[in-house]
Design goal:
It contains 12 helices and 27 strands. It has 571 residues and is an alpha+beta fold.
Amino acid sequence: MSLSMRSTDPRLVLALGLIAHGASGCLEHPLKPVEYDMASQFETTLDVVENKDVDILFVIDNSGSMGEEQATLAKNFDHFIAVLEHPDVDANYRIGITTTDNGAPGCNGTTPEGGKLRLTSCRDRQQEFTWNGENPPVEKFDEACGNICPPELAGLETTPTVTDHDTEPKPRAWIERIEGATNLPEGVTTTDAFRCFGPQGIDGCGFEMPLETMWKALALMEQPGQPNFDFRRRGAILGVVLVTDEADCSLNPDHAAIFDKNGTKVFWSDPGAPGPTSAVCWNAGVTCTGGPGTYENCDPADKDESGQITSDPDEAVLLPVSRYVDMLQNIEDEKKTMAPDQEVIVAGIVGVPSGYSGPEDIVYQDAVDPTFQAKYGIGPGCSSPAAEAVPPVRLREFARAFEVDGEPNLYSICDDDYGPALEGFADKLISQIRPACMPACVADTDPETPDRLDPDCIVEQVYPEGGGTEVIPPCVLTCGGSPCAPDERDQADGWEFPSEEASACFRYLTDRWGAEGTPTKLDDMGDACIEEGWNLEFRIERRIGSPPPSGTRIQATCQLSQQEEIDCPDL
């Protein structure tokens, strides 16, 4: 039955999300009846926003101890990209980077990003890989940048692109790969780019504020004129990665006196010291039970300038963790109005032991080394030849609020390989991408072909903000390079766009039996749709570099089955 013959057919109208299909499953073949009742059915409409888009924000500690860790992150980035670019995923992703430097008293001379995204080759910032906080100064350029970023990528910049709300092509402060096209010069992969853009140097403020710079980075994405503007797409899955070896020190600027050399020094480990250390951050934001020596537990605490617990967020010297949980929860709630199952994905590469499985794995104890204790206020949460890191109490509490299915989302910064951490984070991101199942039992319009489902659907994309609709034509299946004859579709070995003008087309995926079904793999359904009992999945194909506006929906109008026990036996 052709699309042009469908004007009197009953329909169920549903708007579907898009994704590349996954592996196929195996089911017992149902048998079709000889006669098929095509009597009228009802209509309804359901909207599910496209969620193949993924926006990822990296917040990277750029303080003096982070040279090795930045090198490890950059070297292992290919694990992350491999998951996002796998053919069964093919995510449309953006990657933005900011630092933990938000400025703080005692950090004079740094150039705080304050949440602004920046994208410059580390080879153009060699001076940032020297830290003068030690004698002699620490120099990490070769380790963190020179041995990782090729010399020819000095001066690397993104190529001009447009966004949903800025249609003037210009270089953006982020890496992106949309519908197979990147915003990088020819021959430069996204992995190559991150190996140069990712290392942030080691001359940043030592009072790290990963939560506050994350908050500011997300807020700046809503402000025209900022490098962050329009990075975050309305319908995209949002991921945040925090990378630091110290405690969060997100200061309430009204209480900067806690760092004052002439102040009360309530949170200083050594009031006689010439200046504050990171111990101020630990003491001002954490309360431990038990001890001294080894503590039963340590938890975030809102304290006023006198060191007392306060319930007034304005009096808390460090901005409450709830500020950051609430911001991401609001973003998640907004996304759930478009995709009810969508969640914000958070990960931390922080001071937890290798193989971290929950808070009980962290041992909170005073440091054996008195210098470490004086500097940080507590002993390390993990140690290795690669790193020594402070337990991430505030970050732990923040990350726990965004665990998915109770699975831990913190990884050890002391590991010498971040591949498993990056793969784990990427896997959680792509778990949010759902295949475009037709969530109804679709009718088989041709009972003369008992070995396959022959659906009859019209597929349209619905543009956001009153932009109207546009019919998406079916892709042309090819056999040996030429269009397949009707009786050859089960043998298809490729597909093509129906015309030079078409920027998108759709394919039906109807084979629930994989290798035991039709000979071609081009119609194999993904596991998710099969497990839910549906009998039809769509695959939307787009030309490279031809993405629709963010928030575009896909609407499918299909004839419904009246014999679900035949067409959808597993519902």
